Amino acid sequence: MSQDSAPGTQDFIFPLVIFDDVLWPSDSAATLIHAAAMPEPYRGLLAHNEHMTETMGAFYGSPVDVRVLSADRLGDFYHRRIILTLQSTGRIVQYGLVRIDLACCSPPVRDAILSQKSPLGRILIEHNVLRRIEPTAFLRVEPGPTLVEAMALPGPTMLYGRTGVIFTDDRPAIAVLEIPAPV
Fold first, then answer.
1. Spatial separation of the C-alpha atoms in residues 88 and 71, rounded to whole Å
2. DSSP of 87-133, one letter per residue?
3. Considering only CA atoms, which of 95, 99, 72, 77 is closest in space to residue 17?
4. Longest Cα pair distance anywhere in the chain, in angstroms?
5. How far apart are CA 140 and CA 31, in angstroms?
6. Is CATH 3.90.1150.10 the right assignment for the domain spanning 24-180?
7. For the stretch 138-172, what's the b/e string if a residue is b when 16 or more beta carbons lie within 10 angstroms of its beta carbon?
8. Structure confidence by residue, pLDDT tens digits, 108-147
9. Residue 26 has what pLDDT?
């Protein structure tokens, strides 16, 4: 991965999942870019402080479901690799990586997350969790075979994404990487 600026304090405290060798597909490459460098509709889909669950549902006019590709837990830390699909057609609309500090979640929220049945944004909204979403970086992604397969792409194509931190009750609880499918 290349970048045009040094990591900030927040990156040191709560690392971006993009740098996580466990989750990031090693055969894909990402470059940090400014939000303004993303073409539409990707800039509109990514450069905001909203849940991607809501953003993708509104963009496509259909609620989304989550499909967990892989997950693991070590104590209070849980991570998963997911895709979001449209309820109406099953079409893949987003790839994501999530790392969650379950100690920051109430037991009902923790149970809902671990059940792997609903997208994270929907869980936080339905449980009325006080939250703040802060994008930390915008990316141009060159997908390798792993990402191409996970997103069911016809072949490598330029993708755009974002990393971010979701604060719950004003604590950094969740790190995300979100990559919309080509539109």
1. 25
2. TTT--EEEEEEEEEEGGGS-HHHHHHHHHT-S-HHHHHHHTT--EEE
3. 99
4. 42
5. 5
6. no
7. bbbbebeeebbebbebeeeeebbbbbbbbbbeeeb
8. 999 999 999 999 999 999 999 988 999 999 999 999 999 9
9. 87
Retrieve residue 11's tokens: 């990156």
Q: Phi and psi for 16 in degrees, rounded to 5?
A: -70, 140
Residue 153 has pLDDT above 60, yes or no: yes
CA 145 distance to own-chain centroid: 19
The 3-state DSSP class for residue 156 equals coil
Residues 6+ apart with CB under 8 A from 154: none
Q: ∠ at Cα 160 (157, 161), nearest 5°? A: 135
- pTM for this one? 0.89
* pLDDT greater than 80 at residue 12: no
Per-residue pLDDT reduced to its tens digit, 61-111: 999 999 999 999 999 999 999 999 999 999 999 999 999 999 999 999 999
Per the structure block, which two tokens stand in for 183? 């539109």
Q: Among 54, 147, 49, which residue's Cα sits nearest to residue 95?
A: 147
Integer Cα distance of 38 and 124 in angstroms:
28
- Residue 123 φ/ψ, nearest 5 degrees: -60, -50
